[in-house]
Amino acid sequence: MSDSASLEVWLRGPVPGVPSMLQPVAHALLQAREELAGAFADFPPTLLNERPEAVASVGFHLQHLAGVLDRTFTYARGEALTPAQQAQLAKETQPLPTDAETLEQLQQRFNQQVDRALAQLRTTDFADLTELRGVGRAQVPSTVIGLLVHAAEHTTRHLGQLLVTAKWVRSQA
């Protein structure tokens, strides 16, 4: 039998307190957190803003991972974005300081956002999953479950892009 820590998160069993319908969301977010931690054990922060062939930088993806979770979970609660969230969104494409402290802060921000997301999943009522929610200024229609699943999907997609870009910029450094 395998050591459970070596298994992907979804194979380790249910995340305590998370409703069964939302387990895949929790598993995806926890898996992303683990993979992100492993990817930056020795990543040079001087490469945060590198954009080979004009792809999005590692720094962008790190900011965007936390930002998207924050925004989609806000919409899932039926709330509008705050001015601080809107300002953070505008900053995601800006170059970052390239030091170890910035890299650590970005990882911590993502980890904290995953913790907030898990707390919200634990309090999400099954009966609310199909409730309509508006997204953005245009209030594009979605549902609670649509937003939560999108948050997980979007996180895994950007994590994959981040991992490839990080490997690419390391190979060229």
TrEMBL record:
Segments forming domain DinB-like: 29-162
Any Pfam family hit: DinB_2
Organism: Hymenobacter cyanobacteriorum
Gene3D superfamilies in the record: dinb family like domain (1.20.120.450)
Protein name listed in UniProt: DinB family protein
Transmembrane segments: none
